[in-house]
């Protein structure tokens, strides 16, 4: 199977990812997927939202041993292992099916951040910085508002913010696709 499945997901949790690692983050019971953007090869990305079934094309690709790519792929790999598989019924790719676009770029001496790697390659497509700020707000609980229980768990999840976050994930996949087209695949030993 020659097509590569590009994936970017957005998540939220009471677990602070800046203080703990991704393993702990995805093992936390409050961690959940907000949305997932995906595309094959150079196709235009598509959004998946929790409650929808795993798209057949993704299921077939993963079950056939197809390659999955992400920027900082360990994050998506753990999301599949701990959330998309057990909670949403998605197939879980084997470790050897993953390709990390961040590591591919770093092997060539490029910056390790998506918002820096695309400009370093002089690509016309860039990370959505406004969407990044929104994601940082939406990935953490918000404070209770007047009339809400002060000890409740509340999120920034109004429909307009959710739609905008989906657009951010789509742009990250587009940026990842453009970067990967410029990079040399890693050797099997790498």
What does it look like?
- By secondary structure, the protein is α/β, with parallel strands linked by helices.
- It is built from seven helices and five strands; from the N terminus they run βαββαβαβαααα.
- Strands 3-2-1-4-5 form a five-stranded mixed beta sheet, with helices on both faces.
- The longest helix has 24 residues, at 159-182.
- The mean pLDDT is 94.
Topology:
Elements: E1 4-12, H1 22-27, E2 32-40, E3 46-48, H2 56-63, E4 67-70, H3 73-88, E5 98-100, H4 101-106, H5 114-120, H6 129-138, H7 159-182
Parallel strand pairs: 1-4, 4-5
Antiparallel strand pairs: 1-2, 2-3
Helix pairs in contact: 6-7
Q: What gross morphology would you assign?
A: globular
Helix content: 40-55%
Average pLDDT number: 94
CA radius of gyration is 17 Å
Sheet with the most strands? 5 strands, mixed
Ranges where pLDDT stays below 50 over 5 or more residues in a row are: none
First-residue to last-residue Cα separation: 21 Å
Per DSSP E runs of 2 or more residues, the count of β-strands stands at 5
What fraction of the residues are assigned to beta strands by DSSP?
5-15%
| Order of helical and strand elements | EHEEHEHEHHHH
Across the major sheet, the strand order is: 3-2-1-4-5
Number of helices: 7
> Structural class, from helix and strand content?
alpha/beta
